[in-house]
């Protein structure tokens, strides 16, 4: 194949993807570097011809808008036979196929998948790490299998120098699907207009060095060489075909913002926009959680309730010395909601593979993550909720290496309605579904492993804060206005360790 070719339409794109191929896809939710035009071409081909079919799809982060773009393009019975995904919730249609056992469903940590692309491309024997021990990806639990159709062992336990490790087996990638901003005369891709780099290079490397091909999407073609040359993030030797998509959007917002991609410096003399503060329950929890930043140099924020903490920190004048998110962003004005993972005026944008290396080696002082369920052992579930696979994203990579972890979540689900009135928490309507349970349905965070690792772990809810100890989960404080017995203890499925000093008075922050 002469490099690169320029497919003229969906038939040309589909002709490059054989039945039964293993696809690696780079991208993230909210349309971040999402190669949707390529995926749409494959979808059109399948609906028109029934091909390509029986695909294996591997992706580190969630890809799509939750409705029709991204992974949903591939979510047709018969088109896909297996998915190995770091995050699933951006495609409810793919979740449905997994729930009905119409595909083999696996989930692994996002950082592991991104790194596995690199290691597979480099010809190394997979990823050997302690990340994932004690969680659902550990072969002693589920081995990353998420439905009955998934039977193959993708992970194994090994021992090195007397310690347990997990070995995530290497992948053979037939087709890498990536996106860039522009492609030059020799096929090199620039990511200059993109809001992140993610694992684009690693996906291309894995496909090329596996003997497969790389299909890239780009907004425009340049007849000259990319300049400055350091903007050519993906060298043309790795690119086999480029689908030009002039309508390509930077993110799901549609409007190109050069401050997201770092193409321009922050406006001189112009104050940054005021923070968009979370409201209601999210704000109550975030306002308590922000106090745990302390003097940490390196702070990580996860999706959901923690995504509102940076705005609270800005509004209250609490400095965050250095902030990162797993998509590779360092500092800047972090965006929340669908565009979580991007930032205006970032100090640096690195690949997500490099970011996860930073995390895995212990680069985070304190991490703030969401919490679906927690249990008596201090385990947390965010990867399987309501019967659907959600996947951990970077949750496992982050929580098993951060020195301090602060989980943020509601005490109950389904119908919970609370508000702060004159500094006291009022529960208007309690939730009908407990979240502090005897045993979580999916272990995304292992309390026992955290104790072994020597980590500090807190669980912040709107009405109470808990702390992980070697003896178990201990109650650390209750919010003013809360009745300890009625609102906390009687609504939990396990009994926490109680401090002797804590009585039923409305006292905020009576620590263990």
Give a written overview of the molecule.
- This protein is an alpha/beta fold.
- It has 12 helices and 34 strands.
- Strands 20-17-16-15-21-26-32-33-34 form a 9-stranded mixed beta sheet. Strands 4-3-2-1-8-11-14 form a 7-stranded parallel beta sheet, with helices on both faces. Strands 12-9-10-13 form a 4-stranded mixed beta sheet.
- Helix 4 crosses helix 5 and helix 4 crosses helix 9.
- The longest helix is centred in the N-terminal third of the chain and has 14 residues, at about 35-50.
- About 55% of the residues are buried.
- Residues about 505-510 have low confidence and may be disordered.
- It catalyses: an acyl-CoA + acetate = a carboxylate + acetyl-CoA.
- Keywords: Transferase.
Question: How are the elements arranged and paired?
Answer:
Blueprint: H1 10-14, E1 22-25, H2 36-49, E2 55-59, E3 80-85, H3 92-99, E4 104-107, H4 110-121, E5 127-129, E6 155-160, E7 163-168, E8 175-179, E9 182-183, E10 189-190, H5 200-209, E11 213-218, E12 220-221, E13 232-234, E14 241-244, H6 258-261, H7 280-289, E15 299-301, H8 309-316, E16 323-325, E17 329-330, E18 333-334, E19 343-344, E20 348-349, H9 352-360, E21 366-370, E22 373-375, E23 380-381, E24 384-385, E25 388-389, H10 395-399, E26 404-408, E27 412-413, E28 417-421, E29 424-429, E30 433-434, E31 436-437, H11 447-453, E32 456-460, E33 464-469, E34 472-478, H12 484-488
Parallel strand pairs: 1-2, 1-8, 2-3, 3-4, 8-11, 9-12, 11-14, 15-16, 15-21, 21-26, 22-31, 26-32
Antiparallel strand pairs: 5-7, 6-7, 9-10, 10-13, 16-17, 17-20, 18-19, 22-23, 24-25, 27-30, 28-29, 32-33, 33-34
Helix pairs in contact: 4-5, 4-9
């Amino acid at each position: 194949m002469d490099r690169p070719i320029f497919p003229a339409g969906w038939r040309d794109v589909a002709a490059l993807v054989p039945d039964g191929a293993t696809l690696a896809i780079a991208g993230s939710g909210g349309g971040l570097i999402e190669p949707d035009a390529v995926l749409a071409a494959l979808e059109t081909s399948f609906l028109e011809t029934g091909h390509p079919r029986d695909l294996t799809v591997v992706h580190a982060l969630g890809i799509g808008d939750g409705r029709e773009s991204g992974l949903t393009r591939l979510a047709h019975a018969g088109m896909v036979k297996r998915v190995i995904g770091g995050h699933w919730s951006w495609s409810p249609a793919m979740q449905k196929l997994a729930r009905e056992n119409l595909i083999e469903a696996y989930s692994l940590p996002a950082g592991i998948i991104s790194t596995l692309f690199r290691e597979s491309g480099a010809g190394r024997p997979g990823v050997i790490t302690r990340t994932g021990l004690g969680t659902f990806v550990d072969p002693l639990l589920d081995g990353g299998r998420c439905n009955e159709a998934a039977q193959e062992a993708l992970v194994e336990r090994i021992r090195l120098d007397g310690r347990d490790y997990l070995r995530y087996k290497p992948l053979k990638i037939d087709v890498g699907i990536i996106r860039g901003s522009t492609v030059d005369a020799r096929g090199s891709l620039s990511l200059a207009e993109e809001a992140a780099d993610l694992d684009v290079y690693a996906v291309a490397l894995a496909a090329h060095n596996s003997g497969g091909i790389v299909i890239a999407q780009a907004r425009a073609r340049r007849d000259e060489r990319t300049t400055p040359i350091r903007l050519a993030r993906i060298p043309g030797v790795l690119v086999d075909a480029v689908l030009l998509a002039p309508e390509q959007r930077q993110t799901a917002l549609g409007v190109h913002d050069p401050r997201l991609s770092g193409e321009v410096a922050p406006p001189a003399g112009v104050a940054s926009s005021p923070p968009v503060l979370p409201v209601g329950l999210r704000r109550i929890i975030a306002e308590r959680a922000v106090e745990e930043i302390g003097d940490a140099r390196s702070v990580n924020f996860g999706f959901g309730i923690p995504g509102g903490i940076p705005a609270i920190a800005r509004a209250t004048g609490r400095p965050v010395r250095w902030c990162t998110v797993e998509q590779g962003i360092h500092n800047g004005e972090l965006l929340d909601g669908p565009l979580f993972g991007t930032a205006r005026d970032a100090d640096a944008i690195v690949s997500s593979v490099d970011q996860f290396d930073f995390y895995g080696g212990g680069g985070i002082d304190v991490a703030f993550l969401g919490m679906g369920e927690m249990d008596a052992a201090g385990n947390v579930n965010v990867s399987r909720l309501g019967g659907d696979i959600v996947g951990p994203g970077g949750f496992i990579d982050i929580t098993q290496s951060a020195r301090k972890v602060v989980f943020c979540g509601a005490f109950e689900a389904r119908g919970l309605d609370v508000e702060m009135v004159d500094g006291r928490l009022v529960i208007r309507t309690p939730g009908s579904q407990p979240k502090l349970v005897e045993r979580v349905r999916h272990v995304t965070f292992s309390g026992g492993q955290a104790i072994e690792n020597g980590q500090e772990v807190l669980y912040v809810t709107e009405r109470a804060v808990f702390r992980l100890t070697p003896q178990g989960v201990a109650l650390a404080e209750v919010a003013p206005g809360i009745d300890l017995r009625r609102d906390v203890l009687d609504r939990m499925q396990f009994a926490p360790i109680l401090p002797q000093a804590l009585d039923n008075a409305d006292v905020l922050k009576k620590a263990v």
